[in-house]
């Protein structure tokens, strides 16, 4: 597989997405009605779904795989396209008044389609990663400009062979100074690279414009590399008309797309849990009420996103008036915890009422655990970076909760903060699903503390 086959990859991904969509549609129809032969209404629905997917997918370009490859970003983009497609299909169904379409079949179709594509993308990215490390599917590049910046760039490419870049030539600033602009442009055209990386400290504006026009004419990607070195900081390009500006942050900003995806997932997931788990909720309520005196539910003020207070709900696991002496954290063999409460805390079942907090919008399914103001002030004294966690919605579960569990003192709280800060750097639907799966494992194994 050589470079020239890369142009066929988007078309291959587009067609395979379309095939997987239809496979999901017919599979869900078989699961629901035990036949692959669709009814007249189902045929109309399948045709509508296909046409809408072709249009929405073409507009979003979700089938493009860009370098450097990021599976998480690609799946997130696909998921956003899927949501737009679902809204488009529902809108058409509503306005055309197409009746007799099974809701269960629709939701099953989209669920299967999403799972199929996640598997397909995972296999595709693994395959591309493998063959590029073996030296195939590479792009030829030329680097021009400052030698120090160029060396850093080449070192990055060497550390990541999955990028699939081969250095054809390097033209230093000294060589560029000895060449006329026309001579430099001609030299680049003769080398016929796929991409040109311009490493600049100070770039001639007219020359840059000529190189960009050359790239448009000869289908060569022109990329500009600054001399800025980022370690744990994150950069976002902001265009002020014709002035590109890099905005730097110590952690990545959560974009509108991620916020929409997280909120949509929160509402759907928490609704499903509360409806399907209603018998479990009722059983926990009865057992909690019968095993100790006091109400079945417990509420406590916590601090949420942007330091806004809210009330968190739990099944009561401690005796009534457990904090008459003031705020206290639970500890191992805590005498305030009831016997039934210990079982719930081990399996995290006491946290289930917080799905109501998620539906209300106070919390997310996944996010840093909310704390009380009393402890937040102490945490900030030892770990000022905790302030970053207050910018996002707190969660019912978190990576810190999974790996660390309930904290018994402020020092342990600060240790748990490190896990949640790592989550803040990698917020995505994929990481949320991974944390949920790990939480379920903790619940099943009864390893909560």
TrEMBL record:
Residues 262-444 form the Bacterial sugar transferase domain. It is found in: Membrane. It is a multi-pass membrane protein. GO terms for cellular component: membrane. Keywords: Membrane, Transferase, Transmembrane, Transmembrane helix. One of its GO terms (molecular function) is phosphotransferase activity, for other substituted phosphate groups. The chain crosses the membrane at residues 12-31, 43-66, 78-96, 108-131, 267-287. InterPro entries: Bact_transf, EPS_sugar_tfrase. Its main location: membrane. It holds the Pfam family Bac_transf. Belongs to the bacterial sugar transferase family. This is Bacterial sugar transferase domain-containing protein. It comes from Mucilaginibacter pedocola.
């Amino acid at each position: 597989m050589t470079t020239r086959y890369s142009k066929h990859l988007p078309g291959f991904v587009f067609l395979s997405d379309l095939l997987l969509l239809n496979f999901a549609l017919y599979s869900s129809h078989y699961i629901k009605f035990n036949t692959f032969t669709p009814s007249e209404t189902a045929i109309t629905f399948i045709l509508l779904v296909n046409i809408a997917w072709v249009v929405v997918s073409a507009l979003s370009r979700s089938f493009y795989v860009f370098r450097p490859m990021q599976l998480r970003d690609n799946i997130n983009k696909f998921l956003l396209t899927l949501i737009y497609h679902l809204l488009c299909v529902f809108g058409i169904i509503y306005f055309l008044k197409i009746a007799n379409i099974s809701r269960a079949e629709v939701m099953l179709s989209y669920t299967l389609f999403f799972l199929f594509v996640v598997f397909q993308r995972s296999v595709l990215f693994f395959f591309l990663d493998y063959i590029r490390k073996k030296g195939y599917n590479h792009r030829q590049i030329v680097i021009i400009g400052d030698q120090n910046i160029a060396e850093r760039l080449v070192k990055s490419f060497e550390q990541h062979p999955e990028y699939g870049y081969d250095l054809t030539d390097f033209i230093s600033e000294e060589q560029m100074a000895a060449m006329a602009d026309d001579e430099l442009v001609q030299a680049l055209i003769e080398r016929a690279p796929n991409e040109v990386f311009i490493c600049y400290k100070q770039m001639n504006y007219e020359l840059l414009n000529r190189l960009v026009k050359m790239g448009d004419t000869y289908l060569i990607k022109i990329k500009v590399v600054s001399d800025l070195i980022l370690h744990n900081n994150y950069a976002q390009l902001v265009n002020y008309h014709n002035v590109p500006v890099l905005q730097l942050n110590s952690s990545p900003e959560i974009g509108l797309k991620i916020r929409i995806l997280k909120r949509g997932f929160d509402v759907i997931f928490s609704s499903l849990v509360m409806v399907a788990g209603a018998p479990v909720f009722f059983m926990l309520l009865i057992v909690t009420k019968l095993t100790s005196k006091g109400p079945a539910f417990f509420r406590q003020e916590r601090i949420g996103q942007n330091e806004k207070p809210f009330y968190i709900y739990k099944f009561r696991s401690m005796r009534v008036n457990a904090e008459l002496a003031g705020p206290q954290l639970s500890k191992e063999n805590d005498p305030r915890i009831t016997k039934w409460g210990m079982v719930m805390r081990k399996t995290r079942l006491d946290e289930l009422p917080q799905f109501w907090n998620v539906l209300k919008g106070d919390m997310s399914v996944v996010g840093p655990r909310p704390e009380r103001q009393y402890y937040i002030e102490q945490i900030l004294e030892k770990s000022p970076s905790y302030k970053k966690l207050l910018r996002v919605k707190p969660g019912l579960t978190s990576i810190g909760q999974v790996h660390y569990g309930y904290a018994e003192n402020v020092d342990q709280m600060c240790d748990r903060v490190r896990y949640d800060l790592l989550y803040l750097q990698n917020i995505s639907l994929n990481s949320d699903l991974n944390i949920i799966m790990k939480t379920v494992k903790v619940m099943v194994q009864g390893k909560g503390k």
